Amino acid sequence: MNQEVRVFAPATVANVAVGFDILGFAIDGPGDEVIARRTDRPGLQITCITGDGGKLPLEAEKNTAGFAARRLLEQLGEAALGVEMEIHKKMPFGSGLGSSAASAAAGVMAINALLGMPVPKLESLHCAVLGEQIADGAYHADNVAPALLGGIILIRANQGLDVHRLPIPSELYAAVVYPHVRVLTKDARDVLSPTTTLPQCIQQTGNLGGLIVGLYESDYALIGRSLEDVIIEPQRAQLIPGFATVKQSALRAGALGCSISGAGPSVFALCKGAATAHRAGEAMQKAFLNQDIPCDLYVSPINQEGAKTIERS
Ligand code: HSE
Which one of the listed residues 33, 64, 86, 132 is annotated catalytic? Predict the structure, then answer.
């Protein structure tokens, strides 16, 4: 058992164009840090939150990281253990980059690491998903699973957490641009029609299958052909100013495919090679800046590790 640990959990891109609510991958940064330390006072308390502009609750039962951490302590039979938790938000809220998922993943990782990793990360996933549920009301793992486990994760079913790690071609890079506009996940879900047509369903399942085969075979051209969302993106594009131009810029710069990250407003492109990812990212950034929308660019290989311990004592 450790006295104190500092852990990190990364930002994530959910949906990955063709896997609405069932696919996600992690990037190297940004992400959240959580510190957990032993204390004599029984139970888990959050003592400090930074980087949230005062928006997040210190009350552990209302906080994604605190709630997730407490559920893991209960699962491990350690509910009475004295733990102080600090949360350092180092990524934007409401960005489509899985901010609440990163906090929830960091929350369970901090407890697991403090106790010397008594369970594999996968066994703490349910608690992390419960933590994220505090933030958005739904039990879905498309951000939390990659934030905790790393990699590209397929969630065959959210109930029961039937999650599977997909292979990552060695030259696969992501460029992610976060434009500083407001898109609420709730609004981005409310715009969606509850029904799809049979032709849409056929095309989307073909593309999802194609993406998975492309990842298994490192077939970048197949990955590119498959990254076409015919169901969700056409309905959400209106929420992101100039989305069509941004996407076109990424594709012209050589990206394999480009779509909305999670519920938006961030936009991601998958690319073959770091140089192309930088070019595509800068092209997307320029397309937002041309509309006077400030934005942040993150270029990263797929993060394979997910939540990790960065200091322990
Ligand atoms: N899959 C979710 C969505 C991610 O696109 O709405 C955001 O929680």
Answer: 132
pLDDT digits (tens, 9 = 90+) for 226-267: 999 999 999 999 999 999 999 999 999 999 999 999 999 999
* Closest by Cα among 20, 27, 26, 25 to 208: 20
- Is the CB of 158 inside a 6 Å radius of any atom of ligand 1? no
* CB of 142 sitting under 6 A from ligand 1: yes
Domain that holds residue 39: 4-166
Confidence class for position 185, pLDDT limits 50, 70, 90: confident
Instruction: Look up the CATH number of the domain holding residue 210.
Output: 3.30.70.890
Domain boundary among 166, 193, 222: 166
Based on the fold, state whether residues 93 and 197 are members of the same structural domain: no
Residues 6+ apart with CB under 8 A from 191: 235, 236, 238, 239
